[in-house]
Specification:
Helices cover 69% and strands 0% of the residues. It is mostly helical. Helix 1 packs across helix 3, helix 6 packs across helix 7 and helix 7 crosses helix 8. The longest helix is centred in the last third of the chain and has 39 residues. The chain starts with a helix and ends with a helix. The mean pLDDT is 90.
């Protein structure tokens, strides 16, 4: 079953690449054949097998031999790997389906933010609606907790955005609100804290050597998303460990 879940994740990742490319450009994401971005030749089924087509073609277009972006296999492998981790954690359950959908939104938003430094409203609004509705299916998250997650998580980051005077974008605010609709306020806020900590650790060496300046923008969406993924997989365990550690000390 694990192999099937991983393959399923690869297929979903292939579709996410379509969304990542077409959503910001305003292009239709279904009922439209995939094509090479360079020569515009329509790709056949044998060119679209997730990950393996890229591998067999050496990362080049079969028709014009232009180089495909590493983003394509990376997103497919990442999605397959994360779906496998979700399956190991939740098996084939409602939680697996709900968190699997949230994971797809996190991946799409993160890659678009890395590429274009925006998080499209379509992702955030779709996620808030889906997260709120999913609370009706999850035993550990009530509708009230979902709505509180939207307000508190989004409100906390909105406050930081105001005092930072533009250092945090409204897309990030809505993004965290969306995460709050799925995870509730506590795990969403911890996603923010953990993402900020990871970002600081990653950014500090570049700041020290002068590659980055204090005013350089760092895409915040992927860091929040990483924090959310950790919360989905190990959030309650980390909270329990933290409380136990400080109760002992």
């Amino acid at each position: 079953m694990s192999i099937l879940i991983f393959i399923f994740g690869l297929i979903i990742g292939s579709f996410l690449n379509v969304v990542i490319y077409r959503l910001p450009a305003g292009k239709p994401m279904i009922f439209s054949r995939s094509e090479c971005n360079h020569c515009q030749t329509e790709l056949s089924i044998k060119d679209l097998v997730p990950f393996f087509s890229y591998l067999l073609l050496g990362g080049n277009c079969r028709y014009c031999e232009s180089v495909f972006s590493l983003q394509y296999p990376a997103v497919e492998l990442l999605t397959g790997f994360l779906f496998l981790l979700l399956y190991k954690q939740y098996f084939l359950s409602t939680q697996f389906l709900v968190y699997g959908f949230l994971t797809t939104l996190l991946i799409v938003a993160s890659v678009i933010d890395l590429r274009q430094q925006i998080i499209p409203n379509q992702i955030n609004y779709l996620g808030i609606g889906a997260g709120t509705l999913s609370s009706l299916l999850l035993a550990d998250l009530s509708l009230f907790s979902s709505l509180v997650g939207v307000v508190m998580a989004g409100g906390a980051l909105l406050f930081l955005a105001v005092i930072s005077r533009g250092g945090i974008g409204m897309g990030d605010v809505k993004f965290l609100a969306m995460i709050g609709s799925f995870l509730g306020a506590r795990l969403a806020l911890l996603s923010l804290v953990l993402g900020s900590l990871i970002g600081s650790l990653l950014f500090l060496p570049f700041l020290v050597i002068g590659v980055k300046g204090r005013k350089d923008r760092v895409p915040f969406g992927p860091l929040i998303a990483l924090g959310a993924i950790i919360m989905i997989l190990k959030g309650e365990e980390l909270i329990a460990w933290y409380l136990n550690f400080f109760s002992i000390n």
